[in-house]
Amino acid sequence: MTMLDQIVETVVVLVKCVVLTIIASVKALLPMGILPRKSVKGQVVLITGSGSGLGRGMAVEFAKLGAKVVLWDINEKGNLETKHMLDDMKAEVEGEAGEAILG
């Protein structure tokens, strides 16, 4: 690889970095409702560590969005608690929440 090729490659990488940084900054500064969001309604979402903490929180949020949530955790008791939470939430929301599947 010649010196000129290395310089061109470096410039291309720097330009890509600048462009992607500008795009990310604009997306971060825009209000939430302006950009379209991906719909997960009806999609299968596997949550590992769903028995507590962050995994449980993610399971609840994905269920609110209408996803079919697969719960997976080494802690069976916590996993069942999360499933019961999702089942109760599904009853409260009258079918809007996703379906909970134990893994």
From TrEMBL:
GO terms for molecular function: oxidoreductase activity, acting on the CH-OH group of donors, NAD or NADP as acceptor. Keywords: Membrane, Transmembrane, Transmembrane helix. Pfam families: adh_short. It comes from the Eukaryota. The keyword Oxidoreductase does not apply. The chain crosses the membrane at residues 12-30. InterPro entries: NAD(P)-bd_dom_sf, SDR_fam. One of its GO terms (cellular component) is lipid droplet. This is Uncharacterized protein.
